[in-house]
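Hey,
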Amino acid sequence: MKMSRRDMLAGSGALLAASQAGAMASAPVVERQFTLAGPDGREVRISEWKPRGKAKAQILFSHGAASSPRFYEGVFAPWAAAGFQILAPLHVDSVEHPRTKDFPGLASWKARIEDMRVLSAYVGQRPWIAAGHSYGGLVALTMGGAAAVVPEGLSGPLSDPNVRAVVAFSPPAPIPALCTAQGYAALAVPALVQTGTKDIVPGITATNGEGWRGHLMPFEAAAAGSHRYGLVLDGVDHYFGGAICRYDLPGPKQVEQLADAARISTLFVDAFGRADRRARVKLDGLVRDELPVRLMRK
């Protein structure tokens, strides 16, 4: 389903309003936070989760619209336990960002790309995995080569040559103002794209029973033979019942399904972020058409 700019703004506004109540919910404290200098003197706050010992892989994560990195610890904890370091900027559209009102509508798109560029420069010339949820899933796919719409006032390629693979949880269906199906088809690296059969977001996806399929478009549009995986989890909604992004939701939290997503994404990062052949064999061994955990490969 193709969404218009008006649909996207309306959907993002709905997500923003829905997130207000839960944005300040209590959550474990991240290990470290620091600030990087962004364009025009704008500060970019970074949250970091470190594994014990030397990091085996580095993940740069982009959160969903209106959310915050701290609402993804249900994914970050198993990633850190697997030996991955996670770095995540607080984007300007977050309800926790002090300058949210200065970036209305699609102004956040440009700022998000700038945030990832700043974080990439901080990391330096080393391989990393781009990951994200919802709006952040689009950011991650763009870092991995998807030909998204270049934000006004931004120059240069949107992708990053250091990205080795992409993990995108519930990325948006094609939105002409951000990325078309043809744009998703330009994805240049291995990718894992996740959704669930209840992943319906009014204003972002169709609201019929098949609307969740729009989140799979990056997987469906990408060329075959380049290690693309599509993960569908039965009964899972956009927020895993409030286990990520929206801690304020009444639930029940879909923690078992989130554990499945974390387990499979960990294998994917090991397989294509670290070139671990045994992890790839295990990942491919999970490929099946049947729910509740449907893993596709192309």
